[in-house]
Design a protein that fits this description.
This protein is mainly α and 124 residues long. The chain has helices at 3-36, 52-62, 65-73, 83-88, 92-123.
Length: 124
Amino acid sequence: MTELESSLFTVVLISNFIALILYVLFGQVTVRKLRKNLVTKELLGFGFISGWDILNVAQALAIPRGWAQKLKNSPLSSLFADADLLNKHTHKVDKILAFVLYWLLIFTFSGWIFLLLSEGMRRF
């Protein structure tokens, strides 16, 4: 492992740990509140596994409105949370937490993929 890969591994590992803590915090603070609300309960998106709705809500609050509108108009819209409704029922802190969580997860996932690919390329 090169020094660059070692540094990236450390950064990705730390960001992964932070993302996991934010995931639990966001689920307990924001998504629990949305699950109890009768208006938003059914619009959190399809959950493939337990806790998937946390990712759906974070995505709906974190992505740009144009992207959210494209997801809402797609044939697979029932898989995603309703961003317009969630924006009405969340506070600024919830939105900031969702933004940080979602993009940190995207960075972490991309970092792991890059590290796996770089290791695979070295073996050839």
